[in-house]
UniProtKB/TrEMBL annotation:
Pfam families per the UniProt record, alphabetical: LigB
Keywords: Dioxygenase, Metal-binding, Oxidoreductase, Zinc
Name listed for the protein in its UniProt record: Extradiol ring-cleavage dioxygenase class III enzyme subunit B domain-containing protein
Cofactors, names only: Zn(2+)
Native source species: Salix viminalis (Common osier)
Source lineage: Eukaryota, Viridiplantae, Streptophyta, Embryophyta, Tracheophyta
């Protein structure tokens, strides 16, 4: 029975910037998360669609979905095998659980919300990877239920990984080394306490129940991957904070692991 995880992937430059603390954490991933998955399903904040969509490819190409970054970023490649059978299974589970319109994308590779953390976690790029999109016009409960539908994958050796950010307001980012402002600290602490106390319903309604919810996430794309990982683990799952650090003042790299009761 696999745990589910939520990774705050932060800045794309984590792939090359050794000063980012979260990079060191992800490079030790296989020492922490010892069970090797058969395949990885990534829900990334960088793939938004109107309805749930999976990428159905035999080999994932590297998507450079960023701009004005250092030249070395555009030379990196992470091309793990695709997981077409997993993609079909995801579609099947979602449709069985009321998500009637689930689509297949037969050309899309992996965006940086997937490949930046994965190249640090599993640098050999041998584990098949499938991506599932988020729907930013829906709410946290919708994505929690999306995750619940995917729960059987945990028994099939699949790592369900949400990749986004615990706080994501890029307009408020400060120079590296800047202290976190009060609003970011308050939201980040509220989220940690809510998860560790199992108050998942509060997290589903973070926009109305959390302090500075809209400030921390003016657009929900990077937060909904957490709801999917949380839902896939089940309502009685125990959350564990596996990493915490800050960068650029307002960018929290808090990452969580969810373990269902045995």
């Amino acid at each position: 029975m696999m745990d589910t995880v939520f990774i705050s992937h932060g800045s794309p430059t984590m792939a090359i910037d050794e000063s980012i603390t979260a990079r060191k954490f992800l490079k030790t991933w296989q020492q922490i998360f010892k069970e090797r998955p058969k395949a990885i399903l990534v829900i990334s904040g960088h793939w938004e669609t109107k309805e749930p969509t999976v990428n159905v490819v035999n080999r994932n190409e590297t998507i450079y979905d960023f701009y004005d970054l250092p030249e070395p970023m555009y030379k990196l490649k992470y091309t793990p095998p695709g997981a077409p059978l997993l993609a079909k299974r995801v579609k099947e589970l979602l449709m069985e659980n009321g998500f009637k319109n689930v689509h297949e994308d037969k050309t899309r590779g992996v965006d940086h919300g997937a490949w930046v953390p994965l190249m640090l976690m599993y640098p050999e790029a041998e584990i098949p990877v499938c991506q599932l999109s988020v729907q930013t016009d829906r709410d946290g409960t919708y994505h929690y239920n999306l995750g619940k539908a995917l729960a059987p994958l945990r028994e099939e050796g699949i790592l369900i990984m949400g990749s986004g950010a615990s706080t994501h307001n890029v307009g408020t980012m400060r120079p590296g080394g800047s202290p976190a402002p009060s609003w970011a600290l308050q939201f980040d602490t509220w989220l940690k306490n809510a998860l560790l106390e199992g108050r998942y319903e509060d997290v589903n309604h973070y926009d109305s129940r959390a302090p500075y919810g809209k400030m921390a996430h003016p657009w929900p794309d990077h937060f909904y991957p957490l709801h999917v990982a949380m839902g896939a683990a089940g309502e009685n799952a125990k959350a564990k904070l596996v990493h915490h650090s800050w960068d650029h003042g307002t960018l929290s790299y808090a990452s969580y692991q969810f373990t269902a009761p045995k």
